[in-house]
Amino acid sequence: MIPVPLLQRQAAAFLSFLLCCFFTYWNIHGLVYLRTTVLPEVYFAQIALCLAGFLFPILGGWFAFQLIGGLAFALYAGIVVLFTATVSKTSVLMWFFLEYAVMCFILYRMDLDFENRLSVKAVDREKYQNETNDLDITYRSKGKGISIYFEKYSTYYHLRKLAEDLVTSLSVAEVSNLVVARCADFIPRGDLILMTLADLEGKHLTVAASKKIGETASMEFKQGDMFDFGVIRNRNRFLVTDTHQDFRFDVNQAVQQSYLRSLVIVPLLNEGRVTGTLRINSAKPETFMQDDLRLLDAIGTLASSAISNAMLYEKTEELAIRDSLTGLYLRRYFYQRLKQEHRRFLLTKRPLSLLMCDLDHFKECNDRFGHEAGDLMLVCFAEILREHTAGAVVARYGGEEFAVLLAETSKEAAKQIAERIRQKVDAAPFLVRRQPIQMTVSIGVASIPDDTLDIEELVQRADQALYDAKRSGRNRVCISGS
Asked: Is 172-320 in CATH node 3.30.43.10?
């Protein structure tokens, strides 16, 4: 069946009806005048044309209602032919029956042929549609595969970029902050990212860096909790989908942490020892998947290596600026800090004081009891300095001479500190081979701006005050300019 819009079919049916009325009228008109005219040929031709014209209503009826419409108009036309032939007594007009039949047969064959071609087209279209569906499925499958490969490539690229950035980071704090910041880019789920670092004994875990990525994140974490210590004990990574139902940990304690319902956590390793943890918290259960844990583990591996290198670098730097015997700063580093504090004084105008300390009769004690006894005296004195000068820059200036830089400390306050140090050294018990030895110290004090505004002259005035203390009998504190 040929698909035809309804409006066009209605128009065709109406036009066919009008044509039928027109041809019927003119056919009857011709029959009326045929009986009375002297020229019957003219009206007979008119009748023949009208009967032939019924082919158009048949065609229109077929167009409007297919086979039923065409046969209906053909039947009407046949009745008109029969009526005309009977009235005019002309049997030759019966040939129009054959004309209408041929017309209907031709239309039927055309319609049947068209339907066959439509069926073939429908089969082909269905075939092409199936092929299109297969291609679409294949395309989507390949597109999904390409998307997965691209995502993996992107992840590997960003991991490589992270590794390159970590190589250039030489401090533990910088590495920790960088890793925590990048974790939010790799794993955007969760509320809070934490990195903890353990002490040498592994008994304390301090939060080295954190980053809040959720509105409900709690920043109460300053020390590691049971999940961190669980990682250290087991030396294994964990994916906790619901802390309130995970019986690997203390559920009662986990229930009290309403802001923590799920997490992923991996250990940070250094030469086989767990040095800390890297974790992501979430206030909602079942936030993370195994892919998140694997990705965090890869980041943790990079972070472990970078933190180990940073710790080694800081240790090397510490050895470069500290005395191996006393643990105090070396003279070179002392002068660097002196310059920094001097610049700060120029900006703030707050006083800066310097103590120059020298152990009395150290050479005689060293020669009498040996270098081990002398080293022990130096270590004991270094401990006393650290005890009484918290926050100050304390350095072994050379041999048995020590320097103490007191920022934002007046000359009078520096004198009081120096006196307390002298008294502590004088009263400190010191035994060598079970024999008591009297250990005393002489101290010189100088200050900016009371004595000078120049750092070189500050050191010279403190040295001069120390020499004054030595010449005055030792075991005393002398102030520059007094």
From this structure: no
